Amino acid sequence: MNSSYNKLVQNLEYLxxxxxxxxxxxxxxxxxxxxxxxxxxxxxxxxxxxxxxEVNMVKSMVKVGAFPHLKEIKDFDFDFQPSxxxxxxxxFTTLRFIEQKENVVFLGPSGVGKTHLxxxxxxxxxxxxxxxxxxxxxxxxxxxxxAKLENRLENRLKHYAKYRLLIIDEIxxxxxxxxxxxxxxxxxxxxxxxxxxxxxTNASFKSWGEIFQDPKIANAILDRVLHHATVVNIIGxxxxxxxxxxxxxxxxxx
Length: 254
Known about the structure:
Elements: H1 2-14, H2 18-22, H3 24-34, H4 38-64, H5 86-92, H6 96-99, E1 103-107, H7 114-127, E2 132-136, H8 137-149, H9 153-161, E3 165-171, H10 178-191, E4 196-201, H11 208-211, H12 215-227, E5 229-233, H13 239-253
Helix pairs in contact: 3-4, 8-9, 8-10, 9-10, 10-12
């Protein structure tokens, strides 16, 4: 029995089934005390391994997402931003919009929580093993521009187009010249009605013609983004400045 046990441990080590090794003794004891069948015992033992693989897979998906931080919906202060419909945001985390290949646009001034919400939805998607990637708009443009110069634009576009959820952050913070706008349009066009995209912007849609420095391209981009999209317009104060506002208020009360 002892030699058989040792041989089993050696086999599990060879197969790199670490969780089965860790839980082997307790599973054998549980089997003996509860008169479990061989099949039920094997199911119980392999469940430990599967559970750990699932945990590691989720961690890997979140890491691949390249999120700027790991803030989730539970970390968002909805009381500070009453203009946001909490139930609508929670519905996004069900990923129903991804199944329907719809987009989400967070529109509002700097600091109101657009990136936090976009990231939180992205993390929820990654945790459900949905391929997700986060990138700032300027970085995306620079990467596409570099790929074009290196004659590998098609591959780069396919790379960004493959994700079931792509999050493009901070559209409108920096101007985009007309040639670069065409690159951005190509990506949006490839994803149109195929995959879901979350965009955050501080600029009204009317000003996108100025941002992309080409009204026709801007309209074509908006046409594809907004055709199947939910726009969340956030009206409120900046999270980053709220502590300063509170200090000013307290000082004014003195």
